[in-house]
Amino acid sequence: MRRRRELVEQLIRLWLDLTKEPLCVIVEGKHDASIISLLPAHTKPLVFEVQRLGLYRTLEAIRTSGVKRVLVLTDFDVKGYRLARSIISELQRLGVMILSEARERIYRIFMQLRLRHIEQLAEFADDFEKYTPFSLFLEKLKPLSDA
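Below the sequence we write its predicted structure tokens.
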């Protein structure tokens, strides 16, 4: 149980680091988007749902949004990989910065948590509230006050 908590904390810290600058996130559907909206963030990312907009309308919306960094956060199953590969290919053609390393780090955390679908993060939603940027800032100050 403790290991799971550490992995969730690691995921949230990574997410907070990613959201220090404007970010666009591409997800498969509305359940994924609703989970992303619950994650604590420095700046709320623009979230696009491929199922709602379709692939090409999603790409056009990203191109016109002006956001320079995109995280493709599709599910880690066969369908999600195929979709991610298509999206990444098109975004590269448009010259958009794709955060592939961040996707890989999220993938590794998901595999350790035994998750395949983004919406499965819902089981950790209660933990998200504990990790606001301010609470993490206070946590960093704690060792200073103990000295």
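The radius of gyration is 16 Å.
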